[in-house]
Amino acid sequence: MTAPSDPAGTEGAWAALAMALRGACEDRHPRIAALGTELLSGPGEARLGWGFHALINGILHTPRPDTPDTPDTP
Length: 74
What we know:
The protein is mostly helical. It contains 3 helices and no strands. The longest helix is centred in the N-terminal third of the chain and has 16 residues, at 7-22. It is flat, with a radius of gyration of 14 Å.
């Protein structure tokens, strides 16, 4: 049995994630603070695929896919 879809909960979780990434402390998390918006850019499928490639290849050897500059919603 699958859980029912909760668009309001999904949107709330997305908003919380976006706020956390964009509000990261520059002193404690400088790379996240610098790239918070970029971490959320592009469609979800592209972000997921990039994440898997980064885990397998390493982040330095995984180019960022061409994506639009505006964040996509989940």
